[in-house]
Amino acid sequence: MTYLQASLAVKTSRPFNVRRSRWSRVPLVLTCGFVFLCAAGCGRRDSSTATRSAEAGARTVDWPAYGGGPDGVRYSALTQINRETVKDLQVAWTFDSGDAFPGSELQCNPLVIDGVVYATTPKVNVIALDGATGALRWRFDPHEGRKVLGKLRNRGLNTWSDGAERRLFVAVRQYLYALDARTGKPIPTFGQGGRIDLRDGLQRGEDAADPARPKDGVSLSTPGVVYKDLLIIGSLVPETLPAAPGDIRAFDVRTGALRWSFHTIPHPGEAGYETWPKDAWTYAGAANNWSGMTLDERRGLVFVPTGSASYDFYGANRAGDNLFANSVIALKADTGARVWHFQTVRHDIWDRDLPAPPALVTVMRDGRRIDGVAQVTKSGYIFLFDRETGAPLFPIEERAAPASDLEGEVTAATQPFPVKPEPFARQLLTNEMLTTRTPEAHAAARARFAKVRSAGPFVPPSRQGTIVFPGFDGGAEWGGPAFDRETGLFYVNANEMAWILRMIRPPARPPLSAVSGKRLYAAECAICHKADLTGSPPQVPSLVGIGERYEEWEIGVLLRQSSSGRMPSFARLGPAAIGAIVRYVTTGRDTPAAGAAAKGQAVAKITSLPMDMRWVSDGYNRFLDADGYPAIQPPWGTLNAIDLNTGTIAWKIPLGEYPALVAQGLTNTGSENYGGPVVTAGGLLFIGATSFDRKFRAFDKKDGRLLWETTLPAAGNATPATYAVNGRQFVVIAAGGGKSPDPPGGSFVAFALPASAQPPRP
């Protein structure tokens, strides 16, 4: 039985189907070969592979790096699948990892090298597949068959080769592995037994002198870049405190030894130190690169976007602009020395992380071609800089920003706004923009909207609630943009969702004589998972019924290790306190934390640190109506084409739909979308991303016309890849879902033209 047959047999109500658009009913024109421009679409590979791929009629064309190449433009020079032939795309192969589990996601942008697809699964197993058939060549399970605890998130791999061997690098929780690409086995000479611990080397102040001090959680969700024999990476760290610093680090690809480190929270004597309290480097966290980076190999420059400092929404203990948080940083790839930087948000208290790697683009200015760096933002703006100097290629204005009325908070007086390109997402939510889906929904939205603040960007968090629009997930999100070298068009998909940021007083830390599971949960966990344990899925999972999914000892492991990256470690509380929290979340019983002496010392120490927050958010809250739909008028998600030469939007269309609303006649609404586009020399833009309709689409890159679409077995919340094997072009995407109530998946689906439609081999 084929995968397609099995899917239909099991889920007859959710068919895997391909529908041709009315725009695509044009005669089939077969291409007679490929135009393979390795420098344009394939990045740098071994010289022998690059030479073969650059020849007309080459048999194999790769997708050798996250985003297609080190420049992050997600462009391919392949033309076999084009405007005329795309209507005939069909499923070429599928691979079901079997790894999906409740709450899992699959966001991997695969690598394709010499006809082999390298990817990760929902449980971050690494797999190697035959690019022509999807057959499994090998599988690496870092868990060695053990149960996976909690959600894992991985968006791709790094690779390195010296011509004699090839290595793959993957992060799984706190560990970074080096694998032999031929076998999938760890390379024993890398680190200890084939891996290094990403938490090592990030201790500061008194923590650095105390090897027994529990380590803060550190992981990596998005791959970095490889330059010569260096693997340069960022990190995924907690968004509350305590949190590790977001150092940018370069490791030796052969040994795993640390070669250089750049402090995004500057130490004494380093540039930017004056933008923080003098001791902040010992306790402040994050300012990390979780979204990936890009590399200019010729210039030897790596471009690193960073996120906000922890805690995300209140910064009284980090007064100042907080360099190098929320910045684009150009570093020398061989040493980590800073060349230039630009801070897009000062003293961020809105979680305005830079969500995706910048794209290395070329634009026209006064008849000259200029190499630039284009950085998308959650706010819906694009910052465009000269690649070598950091000079803005469009003017950037300083505009006054409002002050906060929360005790202790001091906001920046001004914030930067690029004059061009024009924003690709709406910036101000007003009464006139509230939902009119039903009269009841409209009335409820107006009543709720009247109680919160909405006055555009950079309105500070407040006790009554502040509209953040676009929301915490953008605007632009981690899928990132694509750039077409032929036209200068820059493509980015966006969410247009409003969220409400409301601040509350955190519960007081319990006195040592009254420590119990419930009170510890309120002080340590409710900041993210809420007092009623419901969380804010999918960003923060619900803990309701967690005792039915995990054993108590498994939850204890998660609390001690905090190896998922986003959650801080609670090992500092000691085993007795952790046990009390576990009993409370699994059974509801509020029991005292035994062993008060050991645990009490830990709590007393934490209480004295400058990380305690007087205000915290009440959770990640979308502005939704009673039926769970956005409480604003569509579009709720868009696909945008921006001309970087002029700074104007060339076209904009809604992206995504809600099937239940389509059934009611409400179409073209757009929806939340996660994952990015790929643009090709064949005139196409491929994108999945949409969370609810599970569609994979091909648009005409010139004008946004829909040319082809298919329904995936689960939402394609990932960036696709395109490649060629034996003269046949494929497009592959991960179908993992996880962003909607639908069951998640764990499949990779590849599409190609029918074998009868292939041009003859040279």
List keywords for this structure.
762 residues, Cytochrome Bc1 Complex, Chain D, domain 2, six-stranded mixed β-sheet, five-stranded antiparallel β-sheet, 43 strands, 26% strand, disordered N terminus
Which consecutive residue ranges, at least 5 long each, have pLDDT under 50?
1-57, 596-610
CATH class of the domain at 507-612: Mainly Alpha
Strand order of the largest sheet: 1-40-39-38-37-3
What is the helix content?
A: 10-25%
Helix- and strand-based class?
Answer: alpha+beta
How is the CATH topology of the domain at 507-612 named?
Cytochrome Bc1 Complex, Chain D, domain 2
Kindly report the name of the CATH homologous superfamily of the domain at 507-612. Cytochrome c-like domain
Shape from CA axes? Answer: globular
Biggest sheet record: 6 strands, mixed
N-end to C-end Cα span? 35 Å
Strand residues, percent: 25-35%
The number of helical segments is 12
Tell me what the CATH architecture of the domain at 507-612 is: Orthogonal Bundle
**Can you count the beta strands?**
43
Rg, please? 25 Å
Mean pLDDT: 88
